[in-house]
Amino acid sequence: MVTRRAALLPGWGQWTNRAYWKIPVVWGGLGWMAYQTSRTADLYLDYRNAYRWRTDNDPLTRDPFESTDSEASLLQKRDLLRRSRDAYALLTLVAYGIQILDAHVDAHLKGFERLDFSVRPALPGQAPGLGGAALTWTYRF
Fold first, then answer.
1. Do 30 and 92 touch, CB atoms closer than 8 A?
2. Residues 25-53: tens digit of each pLDDT
3. pTM for the model
4. Which residues lie closer than 8 Å to 89 by C-beta, 6 or more apart?
5. Residue closest to 13 by CA, chosen among 113, 129, 131, 102
6. How far apart are CA 68 and CA 45, in angstroms?
7. Contacts of 19 (CB under 8 A, 6+ apart)
8. How far apart are the first and last CA of the chain?
């Protein structure tokens, strides 16, 4: 139930789990990633079109980067922006998946009221079955 809600609307799973403080983190992270994806996609199109206009052999078309960038520079920036756009899109999907996973795991851990884990040193002879010093692990559910 919670997993489906988180998949349908980011943050809904956190709302269901009453982890309200996570909702702005989810929305802020996904919003920032979507903004960066859109921004780099727009810049990529600008440089792609500028290169096309410069190499179309039409004297009437002029690109906005004519005075600042060479053809090689336009190609280099275009390729870098394409890779950045693709990376941001992939990271957006990863962040979306992480918020779904977070809601799912948080919902399943709600069943444990108290889960303790502690590690303490044991002096020689205190640890059962051990003659020397050791570490003891204690779990309480």
1. yes
2. 999 999 999 999 999 999 999 999 999 99
3. 0.71
4. 37
5. 102
6. 17
7. 106
8. 25
The token pair at 7 is 């998949």
| 3-state SS, one letter per residue, for the chain | CHHHHHHHCCCHHHHHCCCCCHHHHHHHHHHHHHHHHHHHHHHHHHHHHHHHHHCCCCCCCCCCCCCCCCHHHHHHHHHHHHHHHHHHHHHHHHHHHHHHHHHHHHHHHCCCCCCEEEEEEECCCCCCCCCCCEEEEEEEC
Distance CA 81, CA 55 (A): 19
CA distances from 48 to 55, 60, 70, 76, 98 (A): 11, 18, 13, 10, 33
